[in-house]
Amino acid sequence: MTPRFPSPGSLVDRIKVNATSKVQVEGRTLWMKRRRASALPVLGCANLFFRAANSPLRTLLSKAAWQRWEVHSFSLLHGPEFRAFCWGNSAVAADEIPGINLTGPLDDGTLRPAMTAAAGRELRRSHACQCPIFGGLWSHGDPHLGNFLYEAAGDRARLIDFEVMHLPTISADARQADDVCAFLEDLAGRARADLWLPCARAFLEAYGAPDILQGLARRLVTGPTGKFARLWRGVRTGFLPAAELRARFELLQGACAPCALPGL
Ligand SMILES: Nc1ncnc2c1ncn2[C@@H]1O[C@H](COP(=O)(O)OP(=O)(O)OP(=O)(O)O)[C@@H](O)[C@H]1O
Ligand SMILES: [Mg+2]
C-alpha cells in the first residue's frame, strides 16, 4: 500500500521553524540554518503537544540553547572532519556533508537495504558517544530518514538536524530506544510495501542491539494509548492506516525472532 503522506515524519520539521540555505564563505560550502522570527510560539506549542502525547522530546525555546545543542551534537558526531559553529545569535552553520538525505529514495521507491544499513551503523556509532549535556550516552530525538545523509561512494550515512532533544531526565536506554522507534516508524509509514521488511531488517542488523526489537515490540505493534500519543504516532508514520502499520510491525517482529535473524 502506498503511504498517504510522503513527507518528513517530524512535527517540527513539517512546520518549518527554520530557514535552511547553502552558502559559500571563503571557499567553504556551508549549510546555514536560521530560526525564523515566528518560531517561538510554534516551538512552545510543540512542547505542549509533546507533553500531552507523553513524548520524551522537547524543542529548545532559547535560541542560545538550541545553537549550543546543534553545534555540540554536530561536532561530537562529525568533528574534526566537519565543523559547525554559531552564526550570530539566531543561526548555526555547518560544513557541507556529502550525500543525499534518505527521504528522496524513501519517497521515490529507490531506497535500498544498503542505505538503511548505513543509517543503522551511523545510529549505533552515534549512540556510543558520551555527551556532557546529557551526562551520559548521546541520543538524537528525531532520527527520521530525512535526517540521514547517505554518501553512496563510501556507503556511509551521517546524522544531521539537532533541532529537538530528549528530556535529560530519561535514561539513555529509553532515549536510544526512542530513536530506533522513530526511524522504524518513519520507514514503516512511508516505505513501499515490498521494501519495508528488507530495509527495516538491514537497519536493525546494522544497529546490532540483540534484544532491542523484542523490547520495543509492544510499542511498535500495538501502538500508544491516548489521543495525543496516537496523533504523534500518526505524524511519525505519515498517518498510514493502523491496521497496515500493525501488519508491517508484526511482519518485522516475526522475521526478527531470535532464531530467524542472526544477531537479533
Ligand atoms: N551540513 C549539511 N550538509 C549537507 N546538507 C545539509 C546540511 N545541513 C542541512 N543540509 C540539507 O538541508 C536539509 C534541511 O536541513 P535540516 O534537516 O538540518 O533542517 P530542518 O529545519 O529540519 O529542515 P527539514 O524540515 O527540511 O528537515 C537537509 O535534509 C539536507 O538536505
Ligand atoms: Mg531535518
List key phrases describing it:
11 strands; alpha+beta; disordered C terminus; 3-stranded antiparallel sheet; 4-stranded antiparallel sheet; disordered N terminus; 10 helices; globular; 264 residues; binds magnesium ion; binds adenosine-5'-triphosphate
Q: Can you offer a commentary on this structure?
A:
By secondary structure, the chain is of the alpha+beta class. The chain has one domain (11-255). The protein has helices at 11-15, 39-52, 63-78, 103-108, 113-127, 172-190, 193-207, 212-222, 227-236, 242-255, and strands spanning 18-25, 28-35, 57-59, 84-87, 91-95, 100-101, 130-131, 136-137, 148-151, 156-159, 164-166. A hairpin with a 4-residue loop joins strand 7 and strand 8 (136-137). It starts with 10 loop residues before the first helix and ends in a 9-residue tail after the last helix.
Could you give a short description of this structure?
The chain is α+β, with helices and mostly antiparallel strands and 264 residues long. The chain has one domain (11-255).
- What is the count of DSSP helices, taking H or I runs of 4+ residues? 10
Ligand names: adenosine-5'-triphosphate, magnesium ion
> What order do the strands of the largest sheet run in, or round the barrel if closed?
1-2-5-4
Mean pLDDT: 90
Number of strands: 11
The overall number of domains is 1
Order of helices and strands: HEEHEHEEEHHEEEEEHHHHH
Give the low-confidence spans. Answer: 1-9, 259-264
